[in-house]
Amino acid sequence: MKDLQDKETFMKTFKLSSAMALAAVSLPLASTPARAAPDLELWRLDCGDIAVKDLSIFSDTFASAGKKGVLTDSCYVIRHGGDYLLWDTGLPADLIGKAPAEDQPIGASLKTDIPIQLKQIGIKPEQIATVGISHNHFDHLGQAATFSKATLMIGAADWQAFHDNPPPFAVVPDLVKPWLDGKAKLDLVTGDRDVFGDGSVMMLSMPGHTKGETALLVKLAKMGPVLLSGDVVHFEDNLVIHGVPGFNENRADSLASMERLEAVTAGLNATLVIQHDPTHISRLPAFPESAK
Question: Who contacts 51 (Cβ-Cβ below 8 Å, separation ≥6)?
C-alpha cells in the first residue's frame, strides 16, 4: 500500500515539475516579439554603356563571332530601413560628355554620374554607408572614390589583385585609392555575406570571372527576390550556350557559378537581372521609380 502511495506522490511531483519546466521555457518564447520584415527598396541607376565591336570576346564557344552589341553598365541602390547600400559604381565620371573610342574593340560612354541620380531620389552621397562591389574591374568601380566615407565591401581575393604587379586585366588600383591608402573603411568578404544580418540582402560568392566575384540577392517584400548577377554572366545567352569569356579567371569556376546563379534563381523563383544585358533593364522599374 505504501509503495502505491509513494508511486502516486512521485507521479504528481513529476507532472508538476514538468509543467513548471515547460512554462519556464515557453514564457520567454511567447513574450519575444516576431522580427518585423525589413523595409527594402531597390533602384537601378544608369552607370554607362559599353559598345563592343565583336561579342565573341564574351564567349569561348564561338556563338557570337562577328556580332556587335552594347553592354549596359548598371549600378543599384538598396535602402534597408534608414541604411543605404550602393551596389557597383559603374564607369568613371570623367567619361561624361566624351564620345566612345571608335578605334578600339570596346567604347565606353557615360551620360551622368551617380550623385546626380541620387539627388533625383532624395538621397545624399554621404548617406551611402556601404559600397558593395561585385568584382574588381574598372567598369564596376569607376565612381567608387566619390563615396570614400563609405565602407567598401569587396571579395578578399579581388582586393588582393590591387596589389599585384602588374595588375590583372581591367583592374585599375587608382579607382580604390582611398581604401588602398588606409584612409577609408574596408570590409573584405570571403564566401557568402549577410550584409545587414537579417537575410534580406546577401552577397553570394560566385568566382570564375574574377577570383572574388559575387552576386547580390535582395529579398523584396512585394516584388520578391531579385538576383543581381555581377559579371557571373554578361548576357542571357551565356547561360544557354555556357559560353565563358576568354579573359575570365577560371573556366570551371565560371561554369559552376553560372549553375549556382540559375539554381538560386529557380529555387527562390527570383527575378534574375543580368547587369550587363540591356534586355534585362526592364525587369526592374524605370528610374526614378523603385522596386519594393
Answer: 68, 69, 70, 100, 106, 107, 108, 109
Three-state SS letters, 257-288: HHHHHHHHHHHHCCEEECCCCHHHHHHCCCCC
**pLDDT value of residue 64:** 81
In three-state secondary structure terms, 62 is: coil
**Which three-class secondary structure state does DSSP give residue 34?**
coil
Question: Which residue, 213, 215, 201, is CA-closest to 265?
Answer: 215
Backbone angles phi, psi at 93, to 5 degrees: -65, -20
Q: Which residue ranges of the chain lie beneath pLDDT 50?
A: 1-32
pLDDT of 104-143, one tens digit each?
888 999 999 999 999 999 999 999 999 999 999 999 999 9
Contacts (Cβ under 8 Å, ≥6 apart) of 23:
none
pLDDT confidence of residue 12? 45
Q: Quick one: which H or E segment has residue 14? A: helix 2-31
| Residue among 81, 93, 78, 89 nearest 144 (CA) | 89
Determine the Cα–Cα distance for residues 280 and 272; give it in Å rounded to an integer.
8
Q: Which cell numbers hold the place of 183?
A: 584612409
DSSP 8-state class, residue 2: H
**pLDDT tens per residue, range 28-65:** 434 445 567 789 999 999 999 999 999 999 999 988 88
Q: What is the DSSP string of 139-192?
A: HHHTTGGGGTTSEEEEEHHHHHGGGSSSPPTT--GGGGHHHHTT-S-EEEE-S-
DSSP 3-state of 48: strand
